[in-house]
Amino acid sequence: MSLMEGFPHAPGAWTGNLPVTNRYTFGLAGERFFRAIKDEGRIFGTHCPKCNHTYVPDVSFCERCLSELTDWIDVGIVGEVHTFTLLYENYDGSRRETPEIVAFIRFGDGGLVHRLGEVDPNATEIGNQVEAVFKPQSERTGSILDILYFKPLH
Amino acid sequence: MTTKLIKFPGTALGEDDFSKQKVLFNYDELKGDFAWDTGIAIGSYLAGLKAGIILGARCTTCRKIVVPPRLVCEWCYRPMEEVIPLQDTGTVNTFSLCYVTWDMQRVKEPEIPAVIEIDGASPLHGIMHMLGEVDPTKVHIGMRVKAVWRPAAERAGAITDILYFKPIEEK
Amino acid sequence: MGLRKVAVIGAGMTKFVRRAQETAKELSWQATRMALDSCELTIDDIDAVCLGTAPDSFDGVHMNGEYLSDGAGAWRKPYIRSYVGGGTGVFVPIQGWYHIASGLCDVVLVVAEEKMSSYYPHAQAAFMTIFDHTTERPLKPNLLWIFALEMNRYMQTYGISKEDIARVSVQHKRNAAEHPCALLGDANITVKDVLDSEVLAWPVQRYDVSPVSDGAVAIVMAAEHIARRVTDKPVWVEGVGWALDTTHWTNRDLAYPRYVEYAARMAYDMAGIREPRKEINIAEPYDPFDYKALHHLEGLQLAERGQAPQLYIDGTAARDGNMPVCPSGGLLGVGNPIAAAGLMKIAELFWQLRGEAGKRQVPGHPRRGLAQAWGDLMQVGTVMIMGR
To answer: Which of A112, B43, C203, C369 could form a disulfide with A10 if both were Cys (CB 3.0 to 4.6 A apart)?
Structure first.
């Protein structure tokens, strides 16, 4: 007889949680990237001359050759939609009437994942040129959300 | 190397770098809620606690009695099928007087966690629990203690069905 | 045994600080870059990367080891990540070792990193997850409990006083005053300072505990034919060992770390060492708490049970003694970024055995050293023996 058969009223499950709270520094490269977004409304990358690769967001070292990178480059605020998706479900699983558009927007050899706005979801296409729309400077905190969304360039 | 190297990397920050916003940072939180299956062995252990009994398991090959019970003997890897009731008295194997809580808040009255070797189990086999109803200065290794149970109606099938262990009065 | 000879040929590390501005990736890169520069190799010379870091829940980052792979130079390379708690620092070079000893790779980069400051407000709360979720966490335990309970039992079993144990903290912190990366090096600390420090969980007091830290360490390991070309002072891996004990820690003998003994014996057998006390010139046991250094020295068979304090009393463990213990300053002095601390000891032995440890140098041309780490659910022992 299995042990459990002798104890039919044994509790079947024990509930609990993982108390994990974090505080992240943005790092040496991240500090520069987000200060530029916060204070200047500019997006930066770094260029590795050896590998001829421009990382966006910026990084302090090249992952290909491990050199320290110091070529900070303003990559502008206009990028190209490399791919996108239309989200019909919210974070909590509830249904959305109009989809949220999340895109990967190419800058340099990297890019940013962000939302698209001021655009008809059905008119969104890979290859569209889009421009960052920032919050007013006084409202920015040094976060990726300081960019509200990207809108099509006309 | 260290005789030649003079500069080691790493940028130290102080707490006021954060409070004065000299560096950028953000907060985050993991939402990890779990429902763990108690399993056959611990499930019976908890059921035993609800009934006011501490259970152990015996390996007939190794002649060891362990607590809490488990399904397999760690020493010979055979199934440990005999679940047996142990006593609710024991001996303090070790203890500590703790003045900080689990999240590092200071407290005045110490909590007294201890490892208590349960009577009926093999020597050095015990469980962790708290000591109560005792003067912290009088706690010692080797002290004889007995479990203080929650009233039967309030027991839920948990380790906290034992409130704490208290010293057995010397006769 | 059919295993090739493996040497450590380069090492680098970051400072160990309470909280670093660098992200975990950047810390890993800084240590990696330094290790490669120290032996004048580039990332293209590396065949594989082994990394050890904290479990995902501490940094709140899923697949934390893989997340750090770019900083560890693992872009498009064979990569393996492992974690055995504090034992990681000596476990991950063992992985690097068998990558090469087996003949699969010739040059391997081994990196260990941990950023404990990202757990906020205090890393201790994360350690509640070490306790069994059903039978122990409802008691709201604190990581200090396990150490305090073990320390008390150890003291009681052998009649060791708090003063005997405080001597370890004093010596290690004084040693660390000469380590450029140390967080808590203090050339003037005394036994009285330790005994007067705040009681956290009796018998554990504040200066008995090593500080929570951020840091990263990296070493480069190579097969014999490459090691001999790159440097004229390769430090050979002579023995490795690792062992795991039961996670039911309340069913164990807390006064003696049997799992460290098993790991040590495995390493001694491999190295052909019959009399460790004679043949080990430098010992770097794992010392997150001061009593742990004593506990481990006994498990490593470098002292009789209950007799380890004597090494600190009669000067054997001093830097100029017969068997210096933790000339680096150990975790108590340099810092404790958990997964990286053991690798710091390996780097220390690397520098010591080559005569490059500067002010921390053990005199007399030490030939052989042992580094040991411990951790996981308080039950893993990992050992590496290095020699010239």
So the answer is: B43
Residue at B1 is within a domain: no
The class that CATH gives domain C6-120+211-387 is alpha beta
For C129, which of A14, A18, A25 is closest by C-beta distance? A18
Quote the strand ranges of B2-154, DSSP E. Answer: 25-29, 32-37, 54-59, 64-66, 82-86, 89-95, 97-100, 106-111, 113-118, 126-130, 144-149
Tokens (6 digits) for B91? 């001996």
Tell me whether residue B24 is in a domain.
no
Q: Which strands form C282-284's sheet, in the order they lie side by side?
A: C79-82, C48-52, C107-115, C214-223, C6-13, C235-244, C380-387, C368-375, C282-284
Give the span between the Cα atoms of C246 and C38, in whole angstroms: 40
Nearest CA in chain A to C69: A63
Q: b vs e for C151-170, b when ≥16 Cβ sit within 10 Å of the residue's Cβ?
A: bbbbbbbbebebebbbbbbb
The full set of domain ranges for chain C reads: 6-120+211-387
Distance from CA of B134 to the nearest CA of A (A): 30
Count of domains forming chain B = 1
Q: Is the pLDDT of residue A1 over 80?
A: no
Summarised one tens digit per residue, pLDDT across range B150-170 is 999 999 899 999 999 999 976
Mapped onto helix, strand or coil, the DSSP state of residue B26 is strand
pLDDT at A8 over 70: no
Secondary structure class of C90 (helix, strand, coil): helix
Burial environment of residue C341 by CB neighbours within 10 A (0 to 12, 13 to 18, 19 or more): buried
Tell me what pLDDT residue C43 has. Answer: 94
- Per-residue model confidence (pLDDT) at position A63: 93
Q: Which domains does chain A have, with CATH numbers?
A: 27-152 (2.40.50.140)
Predicted pLDDT of residue C56? 85
Q: What are the tokens at B165?
A: 């262990």
Per-residue confidence band for A136, with pLDDT thresholds at 50, 70 and 90: very high
Distance CA C298, CA C286 (A): 12
DSSP letter string, C182-199: -SS--TT--HHHHHHSPE
Pick from C138, A125, C173: nearest CA to B162: C138
Is the Cα dihedral C30, C36, C42, C44 positive or negative?
A: negative
pTM of the model: 0.91
pLDDT in tens, A94-125: 999 999 999 999 999 999 999 999 999 888 99
Q: For residue C349, give the nearest of C178, C234, C227, C196 by alpha carbon.
A: C234
Best CA proximity match to C216, nearest among C343, C37, C55, C333: C343
3 state DSSP class of A36:
helix
Sign of the dihedral through C-alpha C210, C86, C344, C282: positive
Measured distance CA(C260)–CA(C266) in Å, rounded? 10
Least Cα separation, residue A88 to chain C (angstroms): 25
For position B102, what pLDDT does the model report? 78
- For residue B162, give its domain range: 39-167
- pLDDT tens for B44-65 read 999 999 999 999 999 989 899 9
User: Which parts of chain C register pLDDT below 50?
Assistant: none
Mean pLDDT of all residues in chain A?
A: 90
Chain A residues whose CB is inside 8 A of the C119 CB are: 20-22
Residue A71: its H or E element: strand A71-74
What ipTM goes with this model?
Answer: 0.88
* Domain membership flag for residue B104: yes
Answer for the pair C290, C172: CB distance below 8 angstroms, yes or no.
yes
Partner-chain contact B24 A18, CB within 8 Å:
no
CB nearest B10 (choices: C15, C142, C253): C15
Select the residue of A3, A23, A35 nearest B40 (Cβ to Cβ).
Answer: A3
Q: How far apart are CA C368 and CA C268, in angstroms?
A: 12
What pLDDT score does B81 carry? Answer: 80
